[in-house]
Specification:
The protein is of the alpha+beta class and about 110 residues long. About 35% of the residues lie in helices and about 15% in strands. It has three helices and three strands. A hairpin with a 6-residue loop joins strand 2 and strand 3 (about 75-80). Helix 1 crosses helix 2 (about 40-50). The model has no long low-confidence stretch (mean pLDDT about 90).
């Protein structure tokens, strides 16, 4: 169901794909994996910093900030319009907290824990 209170919203069709080494969500997934010799510098920086930002790599005119989810081939991200007054440190903090919460939940869930 489309939101009724926002002026603009973005949706992706299920099954849409793009190279994993393009865009913050994919770069964050790669940052959760062991280092590779051929990886982009942004992946190493994301591994070091715990987050990554991209602009226009997947959808022209959009930016994303993402953090990896520990122990999973997954990430959590926020997508936004660059220059729209987004407080990037606040986004990074919120995503980092959300990722930690997901990790805590998965670690304590007997159905998911291996």
């Amino acid at each position: 169901q489309e939101p009724t209170t926002s002026h603009v919203h973005l949706t992706y069709k299920p099954g849409i794909r793009h190279p994993i080494d393009r865009g913050a969500p994919g770069l964050a997934v790669l940052a959760g994996e062991p280092e590779r010799l051929d990886e982009r510098a942004e992946v190493a920086a994301a591994r070091r910093d715990g987050w990554v930002k991209s602009v226009g790599e997947v959808v022209e005119g959009l930016a994303a900030i993402a953090v990896p989810l520990a122990g999973l081939e997954a990430s959590i991200a926020a997508v936004f319009l660059p220059g729209a007054g987004v407080d990037e440190p606040t986004i990074v903090e919120a995503l980092t907290r959300a990722a930690a919460s997901i990790d805590d939940h998965l670690q304590s869930s007997p159905a998911v824990a291996s």
